[in-house]
Amino acid sequence: MINEIRWCNVGNKVFKATVRSVLIGYLLVLLVIPIGSIYLKGFSLGWDPFWKEVTGPLAWKSILLTIKLSVVSTIIQAIVGTIISYVLVRYTFRGKSILNSMVDLPFSLPTSVAGLMFLTLLGPSSPLGVWLDHLGIKLLYNQTAIVIGLVFVTFPFVIRTVQPLLEQIDPAEEQASFTLGAGRFYTFCRIVFPAIFPGIIAGSMLAFSRSLAEFGAISLISGNLPGKTMVASVYIYGETQNFNPEGAAAISLVLLTLSVLILWIINVLTRGKGRLA
């Protein structure tokens, strides 16, 4: 009996060591080594060339444009995503299940296909595009097009992070607030919003991080005008085509550092959601 227990303990230790080794190897191959290679390539020529690449007129403008439009699309997602998630959780209506399943479409749809979809829908040869052109509204090959593309590809993040938190709220709390004479807006602000605030922040930061890296849809609908509509991901692609891997790595390093910082903040906020709520 004692021997069997010893063998079980040995087997458990071997199993744990194997799982740990596989996990560490997986993280090394798919995360640590690729990320480390970007940092090594970005600083391969030293600090001065790196700083020169990052602060170059076109590179710096592409970074600022990416951050600015990512912030705009994230604000839109925070507001619209919260409203949609509230409707999906609190209301029952015909077609709700279809709408709920459609939320995840941007996850499964290649972003280049999304860009082609917007070109087909809003292009100058489409009926909607012709009508908008007559009204003097241009939704392609400008910054508005970039925001539209970013909103589409990041659409599910806020919704899917807020929905579980809404489902945990007892509807009886809202009903009690209504019974005491509070309106819907006041009830939402005092009861619902504090509970879902961590989800809104986490989903918004995920959307922002995803916006920083978007390439497929944006490259088709932005026009890619240097200094005007060229985002950082398109600039990086251009640098690789111009045989400047160090310059591409330098800009990639900036975006990568921002993304890692955002994920770290999300982790901190998730652990402290009780304090936020």
UniProtKB/TrEMBL annotation:
Its main location: membrane. It is a multi-pass membrane protein. It is found in: Membrane. It comes from the Bacteria. PROSITE patterns: ABC_TM1 (PS50928). Belongs to the binding-protein-dependent transport system permease family. CysTW subfamily. This is Sulfate transport system permease protein CysT. It comes from Paenibacillus germinis. The gene is cysT.
